[in-house]
Design a protein that fits this description.
By secondary structure, the chain is an alpha/beta fold. It has helices spanning about 15-25, 55-65, 80-85, 85-105, 140-155, 185-195, 215-225, 245-255, 280-285, 295-305, and strands at about 5-10, 30-35, 50, 70, 110-115, 160-165, 170, 200, 205-210, 210, 230-235, 240-245, 260-265. α2 packs parallel to α4 (about 85-105).
């Protein structure tokens, strides 16, 4: 008899640690599996069981006794995947395969898999819909797509339920600003607080679907419980485009300072425009992002200042 144990792989990371807190607040027992290659021990709250190690090796122990597994472990960076593709493939594609195999053998009810909007590539059709053919441009995107195919296969051939969620530019508290591959929001915040120009890769008019981490975590939890969705893929996003340069201007306004920008060449693997059609997640999961970009950025800035 399972007692509601929830497992979060990559639970010491930015999104994972926010999910862990939400699960604890909901009264669940939580086990975190993380090798701390990108996650931080300081992100973990008290009251979690910790299993440290490489997810490929620790997957059987990590999922044992779990009712649901939220698989977020990965190397979450497009530029890093271009620099170190084998590391990305092992942590992301092989890690997902290991978790699915272990979960099926352990009798886990459902695995929720964190995929990425990067699997769409630079297709001109907007917004991005789940029925569009994927065209991944980076090793990171390819590895995430591998995971989706594996998740669908396990749902079709075993008793394990799976749901894949394509995240779109998640931001918020506990996002790492110090990585050389830092995402745009913590990178901009770091430069603004230091009085430096914002590094913009491209002309700044490229759009992204910036989604607050609290909304994403709500969607992840909904995906773990919604009936009749096994084997499916859903966009999890705000469903609205924001230009990168506009994001910088909003951050500057919130900080009361000018957001000077330093334009640089686009990075390999980057895409031009990306925002999501979220109607399927609204219909099947009951998901709706409720945090405006300005509200989310204000909460993020407050955390960075603390």
């Amino acid at each position: 008899m399972r007692d509601g144990l929830r497992v979060v792989t990559g639970g010491a990371g930015f999104i994972g640690s926010t999910l862990v807190r939400a699960l604890l607040e909901a009264g669940h027992r939580v086990r975190v599996a993380d090798d701390f290659s990108t996650g931080r021990r300081a992100n973990l709250p008290e009251g979690v069981e910790l299993l440290e190690g490489d997810v490929v090796k620790t997957a059987p122990d990590a999922v044992r006794g779990a009712d649901a597994v939220y698989h977020l472990a990965a190397i979450p960076s497009v530029p890093r995947s271009v620099d170190r593709p084998l590391d990305t493939h092992r942590a992301t594609a092989e890690g997902t395969l290991a978790v699915l195999q272990a979960a099926a053998r352990a009798g886990v009810r459902r695995v929720v898999y964190a995929s990425s909007s990067s699997v769409y590539g630079d297709t001109p059709t907007l917004p991005k819909r789940e029925d569009m053919p994927p065209r991944p441009l980076s090793p990171y995107a390819v590895a995430k797509l591998y995971g989706e195919f594996y998740a669908r296969s396990w749902a079709a051939n075993t008793a394990l339920e799976t749901v894949s969620l394509r995240f779109f530019n998640v931001y918020g508290p506990r996002q790492d600003p110090d990585s050389p591959y830092a995402a745009v929001v913590p990178l901009f915040v770091r430069h603004l607080l230091a009085g430096r120009p914002l590094p913009v890769y491209g002309d700044g008019a490229q759009t992204r679907d910036f989604t607050f981490v609290g909304d994403v975590v709500r969607g992840i939890i909904l995906a773990g419980e919604a009936p009749g969705v096994s084997g499916r893929v859903y966009n999890l996003a705000g469903g609205r485009p924001v230009a990168v340069a506009e994001l910088g201007r909003v951050l500057g306004k919130l900080l009361g300072r000018e957001a000077a920008m330093e334009f640089r060449p686009p990075r390999p693997g980057d895409i031009r425009d990306s925002w999501a059609d979220v109607s399927a997640a609204r219909r099947d999961l009951g998901f709706e992002a409720s945090t405006t970009v300005e509200e989310g950025l204000r909460a993020t800035l407050e955390w960075f200042r603390r």
